[in-house]
Amino acid sequence: RFHTTTGSDVFSKIIRGEIPSTKRYEDDFCIAFDDLSPAAPVHVLIIPKLHTRGISNLFGSGAEDEVESALPLVTEPINDAEVVGKLFAAAARVAEAIGIDKTGYRLVINNGGDAGQTVFHLHLHLLGGRELT
Ligand code: 5GP
């Protein structure tokens, strides 16, 4: 299911190091980096190192299309639920490392145009560092 082809979206380019980013965390599966236009004092994006457009592409009826690895690294098939689970686990680690796990934080996934999704590579927003309305 996961091929070693390359994603052409901006986040796949960040994964491959073709576009610079301020990294907060990285492992074989995912990478976390600061959002370019932060909406809060802490605004980190956590993305899988494989390309899928979003939640509806992962779990919806079109789930079989467009999932590909942005790097040759992730070549083993991985359970869809595990993809999302690993993103949330990484977000919790990043929040703890930054020191906002006690004050609180928000995790958001925008899916599709009405949600305001602008980058079509699945990503989890980690927001915190102030009281969020
Ligand atoms: P979305 O609205 O798709 O859920 O969120 C996309 C996010 O990616 C936005 O918050 C936007 O500021 C961020 N973003 C877009 N391009 C870049 C980039 O090249 N580098 C970084 N670090 N963030 C980006």
UniProtKB/TrEMBL annotation:
GO terms for molecular function: catalytic activity. It comes from Bodo saltans. Residues 10-133 form the HIT domain. It comes from the Eukaryota. The lineage of its organism: Eukaryota, Discoba, Euglenozoa, Kinetoplastea, Metakinetoplastina. This is HIT domain-containing protein. The active site is at residue 123. Coiled coil: none annotated. A motif (Histidine triad motif) lies at residues 121-125.
